[in-house]
Amino acid sequence: MQSQKIKKILISSSLIITLLATTITQTTVSADANEQTQTTSQTYNDQNSQSASSNPDNQNQTHTLSNSYVVYGAGASDQQELNSVLSVKNNFKKLTATAADYKQYIDPNGSTTNEAMISSVSIVPTDPGSGIKVNVNKFNGRNNITKVTAQQYAMVAQMAGVTDVTITVSANTPVSGESALTGVYVAIQNDGVTLNNQNTQAANQMLGATNDAINANKGNNDYPGKLMAAVGDTTKAINQNRKNGKEPSKDEIQTMLNHRLFLHGIYSETKNYEQPIVNALIQFNNSPISSSNDYSSHVDDTIKNVKNSSGQIMNHAKQFLNSKDGQEAQNWFEKLVQWFKETF
Predict the structure, then answer these.
(1) Half-sphere exposure of 245 (CA within 13 A, CB side)
(2) pLDDT per residue as tens digits for the range 104-139
(3) Contacts of 14 (CB under 8 A, 6+ apart)
(4) Alpha carbon of 200 to those of 249, 287, 316, 334: distances in Å?
(5) 121, 179 contact by CB (below 8 A)
(6) pLDDT tens across 207-263, in order?
(7) Is the N or the C terminus of the chain less surrounded, counting Cβ atoms within 10 Å?
(8) Which of 161, 145, 140, 159 is nearest to 62 (CA)?
(9) pTM above 0.70, yes or no
């Protein structure tokens, strides 16, 4: 009888230890300077595709990282302070995002300079199914990313083919933040994956397309999350149509978007700013990722992250560990481990 009780205790305790010992990971991302420019996963699939014509409709297009990275803007200073702001650890690989990278990944016709590449980013791989979470961190108490929201970064990176990472963005001087995605793409490239240019260009277009709507509703902290969730829901609907052999028309895409905006309760706030978003969705529809076999499940994960988020911090894991509840959980786990040592 006593052995059965001990067996039950051991089973229950092992389950508790598994839950409590789960590693919580966090990452960081960066943005660009002077409100002029824009910045960039073990792969699920090793395809390095370059054009829609070379990609079967059901080919996986979504990738995560196998290492953690910090990517500094070429014009960024105060790297030591940035390391602290971006939670950089010793195991992070350090890279630099240059004007040439910006031209390659963001705007082939761009004329930015290395000095204008200010924003910096750290990116950490997370568990499968976690989607993308983004934190836009203050630098010395100042919010230097003045334009792009955490929710925009998350959904746009997902549309480009990145998933299951936590990204943290910051800059040592005030910048628009539109170039921060360069650092994300540079990290993916250095991790051994070439993202499809059509995917990244469609995703980058969405970043600019959503700016006016978000700026018009800047008094509502919940709006960016609702808007980007509606965008994500629409890309999922397009993906499901494409996988079933149907290519939606422009009017159908606009109807899909309007329906999702209505479901998220923001149709009236968005209708005057939706045309650029529709155009970006058309570009998404024309890119290989729109018919990728793995897109819907991954975008679902990121939609969950953005739709209920408010403000610039989407991953509160670090805050929890520093909270009273987090400390109590850690203390309880330490006592449990000590009990096992003393008993067995």
Answers:
(1) 0
(2) 988 888 888 999 999 999 999 999 999 999 999 999
(3) none
(4) 21, 9, 28, 45
(5) no
(6) 999 999 999 999 999 999 999 999 999 999 999 999 999 999 999 999 999 999 999
(7) N
(8) 161
(9) yes
- Check residue 92 and report its DSSP letter: -
DSSP string, 154-211: HHHHHHHTB-SEEEEEE-SS-B--TTTHHHHHHHHHHTT----HHHHHHHHHHHHHTH
Alpha helices in the chain (DSSP H): 2-20, 79-85, 99-105, 150-160, 181-190, 197-209, 211-216, 223-243, 250-263, 267-270, 275-285, 295-307, 317-321, 324-343
Helix 223-243 × helix 250-263 angle, to 10°: 140
Residue 313's DSSP bridge partners are 135
Sign of the torsion formed by the C-alpha atoms of 109, 206, 66 and 330: positive
Q: What are phi and psi of 7, to 5 degrees?
A: -60, -45
Q: What are phi and psi for residue 266, nearest 5 degrees?
A: -130, 20
Reading the block at residue 65, the tokens are 């990282």
CA distance 117 to 111: 12
At what angle are helices 324-343 and 2-20 packed, to 10 degrees? Answer: 140
pLDDT (tens digit per residue) in 157-192: 999 999 999 999 999 999 998 888 999 999 999 999
Strands 29-30 and 165-170: parallel
* Distances in whole angstroms, Cα of residue 146 to Cα of each of 56, 96, 234: 40, 22, 27
